[in-house]
Predict the structure of Thiamine pyrophosphate-binding protein.
Amino acid sequence: MSAGPITTVDDARYRRGAAVLLEVLRSEGVEYIFGNPGTTELPLMDALNGTPDIEYVWALQEASAVAMADGYAQAALRPGFLNLHTAGGLGHGMGNLLNAQVSQTPLVVTAGQQDSRHTITDPLLFGDLTQIARPAVKWAQEVAHADQLPILVRRAFHDANAAPAGPVFLSLPMDVMEEMSAIGIAEPSTIERRSVAGSLDVLAKKLAGIAPGRLLIIAGDEIHSSEAAGEVVTLAETLGAEVYGSSWPSRLPFPTAHPLWAGNMPNKGRDIYEMLSNYDAIFALGGKSLITILYSAGPIIPAGCAVYQMSTDVRDLGRTYHTELSVVGDIRASLRAMQPLLDAATAERAETYAGLCRQAAAKRTERRQYLSARAASEWDAPKITPLVAAQEAARAIGPNIHIVDEAIATAMHLRGFLNSQSPYQYSFLRGGALGWGMPAAVGCSLGLGRKPVVSLVGDGAALYSPQAIWTAAHEKLPVTFVVMNNREYNILKKFMKGQKDYLSTRSNHFIAMDIMEPAVDYVALAQSMGLPARKVERPGDIAPAIEAGIASGTANLIEIMIGAE
């Protein structure tokens, strides 16, 4: 339909497809559009001039835009919305889109497409966007007419949130975004997703029947999205069971200050097997609890260790290991329903379980004292060690500031020093594709209402999406970027050194793993993008620098020179 002058009241109902899209987004409660604009996004950018209550968060590269939306969605506990630029921009974003898929982050991903009337001429920037996106999303579709926007966009928000959560994709041709439409957007649907699992009476009896002290609980990432940390605390205290996080987590969805928190599961098969040999059963809450990185021969679950599971994702139940009982349901709703049954089944052993909680508190104190003693012994090392860097960073950050972590060299140590009553403090790169952390911290701050965030990132990872620090400065966000700089791909070297037959190990020569000649100056990089920055080379300067960065209330960067481990 022609976009001619409006001459009647009925004509006033007509608006461009881009305006229809923004109406739907507003009704879905969208605060931010994360993106990097190009020619095919111009109709949307123009329509945003009339929509001041939706802010466009400008990333300088599409990989950063995806991770910003991911960080926002995880922090705000609602789908993130982003807009990429045609085939090239979608391609740029694929690494972090795969991260979002693995982390089950709800995202509504859109990309501008060439005018559909133009596609038969093979124009510049044209590609089959739905085919490109499909490996990384739950579904992908191209919008054919502006009148389809309300249904398809609402469907995208619904399906992004539906278990298992994850990204969905819509292609938005320019002509659709410019097409005039009088379509109504209707109202968002009310959908109750918190289903209660079945067989909870059986599960309660099974858990109560396990000998005290012989059950291990694994707190998976799904506890975060279900907002079930309180229920998991009650469950663990009832059973006197230590709680471990997933082997390669997206979140630590359990208070790290709680006496029953025992850290994260190891990520090597042999180590998992040895740990589980001390237990008769595990209760895994949420899927993907035992991710391993490298192959190791032999089983991971000992023959005498029973597996119980609870998740909304039926695909993960019994997928790899035999289970005695797996139940499908929302973790918070299901644990609330099961708790009275468990209380009744465990009443006679209540004092025994309470004694286990006291023992766990003593063990936790011993672990923390051991870590502190190790750090003290490394304080005067020639270079700051990863353990010392982690200790001082945790001390400076404290229990209340949110942490977005992509510093692999210090991550495991840092988790050992965390001591927070909040189950929301910490997030990590579960997908494994580098370049997530710095932009995710930007999105996280926005998702928390512009609260302070500390982004811990390795020097290698920092080079994948450093454009994010410009966005932090542009948005005036209180994000403190801490680059743990060992000037190498340390994790790869460690893996190589574990293979004694590798020539690289025998010769101590590692190709493409030393970020030297020239070394990267992260302080200068940050300053070039408008951030105050400083370099730290002494252990005693770490905590004051991070504390000052947080207190500044502005985006800033701290480069910490650490040694290899």
User: Anything to note?
Assistant: The radius of gyration is 25 Å. The first strand starts at residue 15 and ends at 16. DSSP finds 22 helices and 20 strands in the chain. Residues 470 and 529 are 5 Å apart (CA to CA).
